Amino acid sequence: MNNNKNPLISPPYYETPEASPDKIMGDYLHLLATDGPGVWCAADETKLPYPKAVIKRALIWALQRESNDETCELLIRSYLQLGNFQPGIGETNIGYDPTKADPALTVPERFKLVEEGSKAFEKWEDQINAEREELATELSDVGLIPPFTGE
Fold it and tell me: Could you give the 3-state DSSP secondary structure of residue 141?
């Protein structure tokens, strides 16, 4: 019997009324690939296909079963990327994501977008970084990554 009180790894951590862990991960990874915020961007948490807690449980469930290092790295990055989803951002992602920039932009136009995106992201940066540190600590607490030192 598992006496672990951590809600991220205690049964029934993988059983959700929303969907199977595979479906939850698939929907979340699809969002990241299509409309998710880049590393220096943020999106409103209402864009998430499931509550953060549900996505976390599904990702941890997968990480505890995955043996491929590249897949584990993707799942860890995806877990940490949850910090880039914050309440109150609104419908449009903020920040500058070079993968979504119009390739026809001139260098000055692109620079202006970078500058505007940086200013918009700056408002949320501390909150995002704090949550990403919490997320890293959660992964460390369940033994999936080395302890987070904040460095």
Answer: helix
Question: Using one digit for the tens of pLDDT, what is the confidence trace for 2-16?
Answer: 344 555 554 444 455
Q: Residue type at 109?
A: E
Taking each helix axis as running N to C, give the angle between helix 69-81 and helix 107-141, from 0 to 180 degrees, rounded to the nearest 10: 100
* Domain segments of the chain as ranges: 21-141
CA 107 to chain centre: 30
Up-side HSE of residue 44: CA atoms within 13 Å toward CB?
7
Nearest to 18 by CA among 55, 43, 47: 55
- Own/partner pairs for 48-52, CB < 8 Å, 24+ apart? 48/82, 48/85, 49/24, 50/16, 50/18, 50/19, 50/24, 52/82, 52/85
d(CA 120, CA 9): 36
